[in-house]
């Protein structure tokens, strides 16, 4: 049985795996930072547009009416 391992090859493989893992982690962190910046900008734009349009509240087309007597809605027998 041959138990001679290629230790330099194993170390190179592990080093490449660690470097790939670090690169993927960096890419994920960059993407999350980029997407959260975009979401924050969109939220601020939406907030500013809703504040500027809050003075223009829509008016109801149907006037509100008050009930003149309590028997207006008599229960059915």
Highlighted features:
77 residues; 1 helix; 0% strand; mainly alpha; elongated
Main sheet overview: none
- Shape label: elongated
* String of helices and strands: H
Structural class: mainly alpha
Topology, number of strands: 0
Strand content: under 5%
Q: Using the CA coordinates, give the radius of gyration.
A: 34 Å
What is the count of helical runs? Answer: 1
Spans where pLDDT lies below 50 across 5 or more residues? none
Mean pLDDT: 80
**Helix residue percentage:** 55-70%
How widely separated are the two ends? 99 Å
In short:
Helix content is about 60%, strand content about 0%.
What would you note in describing this structure?
Keywords: Membrane, Transmembrane, Transmembrane helix. The chain is mostly helical. 60% of the residues lie in helices and 0% in strands. It is built from one helix and no strands. The N and C termini lie far apart (99 Å). The model has no long low-confidence stretch (mean pLDDT 80).
Task: Give the SSE layout.
Blueprint: H1 7-52
């Amino acid at each position: 049985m041959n138990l001679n391992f290629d230790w330099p090859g194993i170390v190179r493989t592990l080093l490449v795996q660690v470097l790939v893992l670090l690169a993927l982690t960096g890419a994920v962190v960059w993407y999350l930072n980029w997407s959260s910046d975009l979401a924050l900008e969109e939220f601020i734009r939406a907030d500013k547009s809703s504040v500027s349009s809050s003075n223009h509240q829509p008016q109801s087309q149907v006037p509100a009416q008050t009930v003149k007597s309590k028997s207006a809605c008599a229960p059915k027998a």
